[in-house]
Structures are given as C-alpha cells and as structure tokens.
Amino acid sequence: MTADAVDRLPWLKWVDRFSLLLAVLGGVATVLLVLTVVFDVIGRFFFNRPLPGTLDLTTFAFMPTLVSLGLGYALLRGEHIRVNLLTAPTGSRVQRIIEIVGMLFTLGTTALFILFGAEKAVAAMNGKEKAVGTPWLEIWPFRWIIVVGLIGLILQALAQLLRAITVKEFRAADEDEVAVALEAETTILEELEPDLARREHSVGAEPEATKRVETR
C-alpha cells in the first residue's frame, strides 16, 4: 500500500521521515530514562545518595517525551492497538472504508488534543511551570513536546488517510501480522508432524513386540 501511494503523492515520504525522526528522539529519551534510573539505583544502594529529581524527571520529562514522539511512527507501522475480530474476515473494500473512517476519527480527536494541549502549554509557559519537588525542573517545554508529538500523529493520520483513498489495492495494516502468525503456526505444525509420526510408529510397534515376547 505504501509504495503505490508514495508514487502518487511523493510528499508522503517526508511525513514518514518526520514520524521516524520523532521516534528516534523518543528513543533517545528512553535511553536517558534508563540511564537516569540506573544511576539513581546505584547511588541509592551503594553510596546512599540517590540522584536528585529522578521521579520528577521520569514523570514530567522522559515519559511524556518518549510516549508522544512515538505516536506517528506507531501509526505508520500499524502498531497501535487494533481489534480486527470483525474486520479481518471482510474484503478489501470494506477494510478500506473502515481505515478511512478510522483515520477521519483520528484526525478529529487528535486536532482537539492539539488545541487543548497548546492551550495548556501556553498557560504553563506564561506561568513558568516547574515541578514542585524539583524546583530547577521546568515542565512547560515538555508540554510543547507533547504538542509536537500530536502534530506528528495528525500528519501521519492524514498520510494514512490519503494512502487508503488513493491506493489501487488496499491491504490492511495488520494483514502482514496475520500472515506472519499463520506462517509461524504452519511452521510449528510441520515441526510437530515428525514427532507425531514417530509416536504413532512406536505405539503401533508395541503390540508386535509384546506378541513376540508372549510367543517365546
């Protein structure tokens, strides 16, 4: 679905790259979070000196950053939660309609979140919002990071919507996952077949061996 749509709308690849860039920055925040927690644990248990502000950094800085900046890339990869119990058996046309409706709802709700988040970010910036327990940690910049992550999500939702509309042969985002699961299941069955054959052979051979012993 992606290659065909990119040929028709080349600018979509820049949206994908923007989502990837935000995801990389979110990954950097994840690494910093891990290092902060590790240094805090080492300082607490070995030197009785925990790292100052670890809880507030995790709550107000690292977690909002790594979660919000990965939203667009998760949508691009089809990693958001999907319940395809009813949609999986349907045809390509129905799944295309479902994808279009889903992206329209995503655009609407994300736009509302952006407006609400921008208002909160402006108020926090004007009030120089800081963490209560860690006065040196200013919170307002991370509120703007959340807004940036939501902008990445709405751009990616728009790109996915245009892909669903313009592509010739629609393929659901989770169809690849279903194919991989079925392939893995088939592989497991193929691995089990020799074991079942050996067991059946051994079960069938037991009576003959018993008869030979009784005859002797």
Quick take:
The chain has 216 residues and is an all-alpha fold. It has 7 helices and no strands.
What does this 3D model show about the protein?
The protein has 216 residues and is mainly α. It has one domain (2-172). Helix content is 77%, strand content 0%. It has 7 helices and no strands. It is globular. The N and C termini lie far apart (72 Å).
Along the chain, the helix and strand elements come as HHHHHHH
Mean pLDDT score, rounded? 80
Distance separating the two termini: 72 Å
Alpha-beta content class: mainly alpha
Radius of gyration: 27 Å
Low-confidence stretches: 177-182
- Beta percentage is under 5%
Give the overall shape, derived from the CA principal axes: globular
Count of folded domains: 1
Q: Helix tally?
A: 7
Percentage of residues assigned to helices: over 70%
Main sheet record: none
Topology diagram in text:
Elements: H1 2-8, H2 12-46, H3 54-68, H4 71-77, H5 92-126, H6 140-166, H7 175-215
Helix pairs in contact: 1-6, 2-3, 2-4, 2-6, 3-6, 4-6, 5-6
What key phrases describe this protein's structure?
mainly alpha, 7 helices
